[in-house]
TrEMBL record:
Protein name as it appears in the record: Release factor glutamine methyltransferase
EC number(s) stated in the UniProt entry for this protein: 2.1.1.297
Presence of the UniProt keyword Methyltransferase in the record: yes
InterPro entries in UniProt: MeTrfrase_put, N5-glutamine_MTase, SAM-dependent_MTases_sf
Keyword Chaperone belongs to the record: no
Native organism: Actinomycetospora corticicola
GO biological process: methylation
Gene Ontology molecular function: peptide chain release factor N(5)-glutamine methyltransferase activity
Organism placement in taxonomy: Bacteria, Bacillati, Actinomycetota, Actinomycetes, Pseudonocardiales
Keyword field: Methyltransferase, Transferase
Amino acid sequence: MDLVARLRAAGCVFAEEEAELLRDADESQVARRVAGEPLEHVLGWAAFRGRRFVVAPGVFVPRHRSELLVDLAVARAFPGAVVVDLCCGTGALGAAVAGAVSSGDSKASPPASSDSSATPSIELHAVDADPAAVACARRNVPGAVYEGDLDAPLPPSLRGRVDVLLASPPYVPTAEIARMPPEAREHEPLGTLDGGPDGLALARRIAALAPGWLAPGGALLVECATHQGPDLAAAVRDYGLAATVHGDDDATTVEGRWPTH
Ligand SMILES: C[S@@+](CC[C@H](N)C(=O)[O-])C[C@H]1O[C@@H](n2cnc3c(N)ncnc32)[C@H](O)[C@@H]1O
């Protein structure tokens, strides 16, 4: 059986495209894909916003829907901005923001007090709790990568200086995980998916910690499921930020803006 037919028989919807990507793969890689392992884990990279990022087995594969969060972050970042990517996984989101700001995609202006002349990019800090994700992020992120629980490993010197705090944390409600496609459920660890009873356990913790890190006028950007937007926006308001829900049925990001004074 040729490769396209094997992939199609295994249930791969984009068999032709995958066969092209696996053209130089060895038989063990093809067998892994046919057995249901995500294509990105087999290839060792994931495409996100037009770039390739290293991704290892057991690490969350960045999703196209997170491009909304990245676009919002790019629009709020500026050369020299301090950007933190919490729950970074491969680090693709923060790295994509850095790449876009370096190429001049951001239209945001730095605050009058900032000296952005020294650097064309952002000052990026990324955190993940999982050592496998941290190892990938260290290969993808043009900045500092820390291992630990949410903001715990961040340098205290960043307090009050973060211009954009972005996060795509686990947000699947625990009871829904059993209904996820096997590709995610069996190959992305529970810690990358499980957001607790209503999916917002991690997102609420991030809303609570954000005021301790944001610069005046800084933005918190947290991805969630569309139906979770209003609840997460309410949590963000509870912590003193001005909340906005961005997105549509495919992708949702809640923004919390810290006052300028
Ligand atoms: C849904 S994945 C998203 C990864 C990445 N942001 C992306 O969009 O590709 C969530 C990530 O959060 C990490 N994580 C879960 N709990 C965490 C915690 N308490 N502190 C830091 N990272 C955590 C997981 O290891 C996983 O990499």
